Amino acid sequence: xxxxxxxxxxxxxxxSGLGDRFSRVLAASGAKVVVAARRLDRLEALATDxxxxxxxxDVANAEDRESLIAQVVEQYGRIDILVNNAGISPHARAEDExxxxxxxxxxxxxxxxxxxxxxxARDMLPRGxxxxxxxASMLGLIAATPIRQASYCASKGAxxxxxxxxxxxWARKGIRVxxxxxxxxxxxxxxxxxxxxxxxxxxxxxxxxxxxxxxNELDGALLYLVSDASSYCIGQTLVVDGGWTIR
Length: 247
What we know:
Blueprint: E1 8-12, H1 17-28, E2 32-37, H2 40-50, E3 53-56, H3 62-76, E4 81-84, H4 99-127, E5 130-135, H5 150-170, E6 175-182, H6 188-191, H7 197-206, H8 219-226, E7 237-240
Parallel strand pairs: 1-2, 1-4, 2-3, 4-5, 5-6, 6-7
Helix pairs in contact: 3-4, 4-5
């Protein structure tokens, strides 16, 4: 049911944090994993560790996105799984964010996953099979305040509804699209937000389970959504947040 052996998987934002972890989990489960990100040195080290393939890709660049998918199809003949993980998360008051910053967040967090899903689907549709998992965020479902992340919240909210629409359009054609909405997990992205005891205490006191997530606590959600175990799960956002959004 959870078998993904020999399936070709692409993971963006794989050079650190959740993307690194997702790549290792997929490889350990038998998938042929292509890791993509900007930092090629880290990617190559990861690819060596997991027996995968490293392809440099800045997801903010449309040509890089097109090249990534084309290279994977050329090398492996198909794409079975796409994990849209790459993202950025600036911190500023809504009135202070520049238009350039807002556009960059939307490009990386929303446009890139949409474009990559399109490109992957063009390979998947003729075969009538494929899985796309978008990494959204619990902040795509609720406001972040008092943490100031207006553009991030907007971009991830868009990913949640994009997931629904792509799933609705492609489900009968054999492509399953779902999302994971992580809560507070340690990563490069959250280090800048929670680098002090006061911030850590805020998260711990406001999360029903009383702590940050451990990175391995997303493994099950990922394997469920990329495998046939979720064959009747369409357009859903699986929230893994220690209870933050139920408060």
